[in-house]
Amino acid sequence: MTRPQLGACYFPEHWDSSDWRSDAEMMRDLGLDFVRIGEFAWGVIEPEPGQINLDWMQQSLDLLYEHGIKVVLCTPTATPPKWLVDSMPDMLATGRDGRPRTFGSRRHYSFSHQGYRRECARITTEIARRFGTHPAVIGWQTDNEYGCHDTTISFSQTDLLAFRDWLAQRYQSVDALNRAWGNTFWSMQYASFDEVELPNLTVTEANPSHWMDYRRFASDMVVEFNRLQVDILRRLSPGRDITHNFMGRILDFDHFDVGAQVDISSWDSYPLGFLDQERDLHDQAHRLAFARAGDPDFQGFHHDLYRATSGGRWWVIEQQPGPVNWAPNNIAPRKGMIGLWALEAFAHGAEAVSYFRWRQAPFAQEQMHAGLLRPDRSPAEAFFEAGDVAEAIRSIDWPQASCGQVAIIMDYEAAWAWSIQPQGEDFDYFRLLFETYRSLRKFGVSVDFISPDQAGSRLDEYALCVMPGLFSCSPELAHAMAQTKTPILLGPRSASKTGEFQIPASLAPDLPDAIRPLTVTHVESLVTGLDVPIEGRSGSFVHWREFTSPHADADVLWQTADGLPALVRRDNLTYQCGWADPALMSDILRSACCDAGIQTFDLGDGVRMRRAGDHAFIINYAGTDFDLALLGDVHIVVGGPAVPPSGFAIVRL
Ligand code: GAL
Questions:
Q1: Which of residues 604 and 386 earns the better pLDDT score?
Q2: Neighbours of 385 (CB within 10 A)
Q3: In a domain? residue 601
Q4: What is the pLDDT at residue 467?
Q5: How far apart are CA 440 and CA 587, in angstroms?
Q6: Which of 46, 415, 481, 633 has the fewest Cβ atoms surrounding its Cβ within 10 A?
Q7: CA angle, corner 237, sides to 231 and 240, nearest 5?
Q8: How many angstroms separate the Cα of 584 from the Cα of each of 293, 560, 579?
């Protein structure tokens, strides 16, 4: 693999220009390859309508280039300036409560607003025309973190009009829409597309089909918005890579669709912030044990997910450098973790990691957010760890990343569907996937994510495929499932709806009769404590359980303690009739791996492995040494026989 690149997010406009030269010198001496600049600078670039001021950026780019630092330039469209908002106030995004969101932070726009899109195209063109072929510029980032601060879905009049157009294109006739949504129920029929309302302020819940289309529409608006900028950048900055920075656990738009437009998916990784924030994923003991290291799977999950969205090329464009400012509590990392997070990303195939941010700002919203430098320009802890990473990437011969052993299907529509209709307070799609992923990783299994569309052609690449909670099964996917020999673990809730968000005519799962292992006759959600134990096994179904009637050709592998099918197999399809707690999940996946010939290890809670061909990277989030001899007879390529806390090793298996 070519040497990974190391960078930092840099905001020259925040500092006196007399600092810029020595910034560039320090970056070079630290071993940084690139910086990302410009993503919130619209107010500096265009302080008044039409007055374009890019000379400061020119000076900064020239200086960086002179010092051998490459640049990823951003479009500044996440922060439209005040004069622009005032010139078209209806561009503001509107919250679910129907109130417009206001100026004074960021992301205050609606994706569907045509006037704002034109402004974004204009400013993107200005910047790309000036710097598109600057020798320092190696790439572009569009906007910043689509979806952050709950901004994908907006409920303004502009959005409503755009939604009606979107529906008219999708359904062609309003009768088709009424049928798809089942609008005879509660007399919800519309006589024309112009009568359709937004789903946010209804008296009680709106029709789930209505919501589902609104979620699809909102996702499509993000995709259209992004495409506009990508098209301009391709034209004016040929040969440069384009990226967008995705986030942790944001599911509001289909990242596969945006990923298909860019060259490189990137994401913003804040392990300690996420651990404290995503409380439903971790119990208190786990949060304490990993408080200074981060959850051992949350980063890997997103590395593996976003790698899939843009065909394999991906970066971490923002990496946590120390305490952040936005989590409920902002903890300082254990020594070594700031460096280890970057090495872990490279182990999962990242081409680049960049720390957020070069220098801590003493002003405004993020003044409590660490950087590589403190506000007074003295080096912070992260500066030294970034230096260690710079050294490691030059001294290590990085094995080429390779395909994982198990594929998990990631279905953004399922995330929308089960949040619209959880049918039980604990049914959370992300959590379902995350628990599956964590369970596999504790065995040292390397996991890839694929979309339902990709699955049609890629199932055969994997020894095992897991498909929990899929929303609706397309004919192409059903065909691929029928053709492949790869074992597939389905359920709970997989293929339980039609694309219109209705119960399938022959009940769930909506699969051709020739392959369907069972029929789900009815389901229940389970309150905490009302677990359904599995006969002869240590774990239980929790949160969700399905009552089923197995197909005559299927085998009931496991039963619940009350004598009903729990795991049912027909040929290569196995259906899991409930949400498995961690013990049961581990049991099911261990036996699925064993049947599929996948080697498993016992890595425990804090050590993780990612394979690269016949090599494997070992990453230690735990607070104790990990003895590599536990992996059997391995040849150590990088590191010693005991991997210390925050340590890293490469072995040949
Ligand atoms: C990211 C964002 C950055 C900065 C950072 C702070 O979500 O892209 O601009 O706000 O968080 O951790």
A1: 386
A2: 24
A3: no
A4: 97
A5: 10
A6: 633
A7: 100
A8: 27, 12, 9
SS3 246: strand
Q: Same structural domain for residues 421 and 558?
A: yes
- In DSSP notation, 79-121 reads S--HHHHHH-GGGS-B-TTSPBP-SSSS--S-TT-HHHHHHHH
Whole-prediction pTM value?
Answer: 0.98
**pLDDT digit string (tens) for 576-597?**
999 999 999 999 999 999 999 9
Structural domain of residue 642, as residue ranges? 610-652
Q: Is 506 helix (H, G, I), strand (E, B) or coil?
A: coil
Backbone φ and ψ of 43, nearest 5°: -60, -30
Q: How far apart are CA 554 and CA 514, in angstroms?
A: 11
Residue 334 has pLDDT above 70, yes or no: yes
Q: Within this chain, do residues 522 and 614 fall inside the same structural domain, yes or no?
A: no
Q: Answer whether residue 103 is part of any domain.
A: yes
Of the three residues 546, 570, 595, the one that is the final residue of a domain is 595
Q: What average pLDDT does the structure give for the chain?
A: 97
**Domain-located, residue 175:** yes
pLDDT tier at 1 (50, 70, 90 boundaries)? low
Residue in the structure block whose two tokens are 């997103």: 302
Output the residue whose Cα is nearest ligand 1's atom 11. Answer: 268
Q: Are 367 and 361 in contact (CB under 8 A)?
A: yes
What is the domain-level CATH number for residue 644? 2.60.40
User: Which residue is it, tokens 């052993």?
Assistant: 405
Q: What share of the chain has pLDDT > 70, as a percent?
A: 100
Answer yes or no: do 532 and 446 share one domain: yes
Provide DSSP, 572-583.
Answer: TEEEE-EEEPHH
Clarify whether residues 495 and 630 are in a common domain: no
Q: What is the pLDDT of residue 456?
A: 85
User: Residues with Cβ within 6 A of ligand 1?
Assistant: 144-145, 148, 268, 270, 318, 324, 326, 356, 366, 369
Distance from residue 148's CA to the centre of ligand 1 (Å): 9
- List, for residues 511-566, the tens digit of each pLDDT value: 999 999 999 999 999 999 999 999 999 999 999 999 999 999 999 999 999 999 99
As beta bridge partners, residue 94 has: 100
Which of 141, 148, 275, 318 has most ligand 1 atoms within 8 Å of CB, for mutation? Answer: 318
Question: Do 551 and 621 have their domain in common?
Answer: no
In this structure, are 484 and 621 located in the same domain? no
CB 247 within 8 A of CB 302: no
Residue with CA nearest ligand 1 atom 12: 324
Flag whether 380 is in a domain.
no
- Give me the helix-helix angle, 337-347 and 381-395, nearest 10°: 30
Please state, in angstroms and rounded to a whole number, the distance separating the CA atoms of residues 359 and 369: 10
- Give the tokens for residue 11: 């905001």
Kindly list the catalytic residues. 145, 318
| pLDDT tens track for 605-641 | 999 999 999 999 999 999 999 999 999 999 999 999 9
Q: Is the pLDDT of residue 2 over 90?
A: no
Reading the block at residue 375, the tokens are 């506000």
Taking the C-alpha atoms of residue 559 and residue 569, their distance in angstroms, rounded to an integer, is: 12
Do 567 and 626 share a structural domain?
A: no
In this structure, is the dihedral angle defined by the CA atoms of residues 182, 188, 191 and 197, taken in order, positive or negative? negative
Ligand 1, residues 74, 79, 106, 268: which to mutate, most atoms within 8 A of Cβ? 268
- Is residue 193 scored above 80 in pLDDT? yes
> How far apart, in Å, do the first and last CA atoms of the chain sit?
19
d(CA 276, CA 214): 31
Closest-CA residue, ligand 1 atom 1, reads 268
Q: Which residues touch 48 (CB under 8 Å, ≥6 apart)?
A: 83
> At residue 35, what are phi and psi to the nearest 5 degrees?
-130, 155
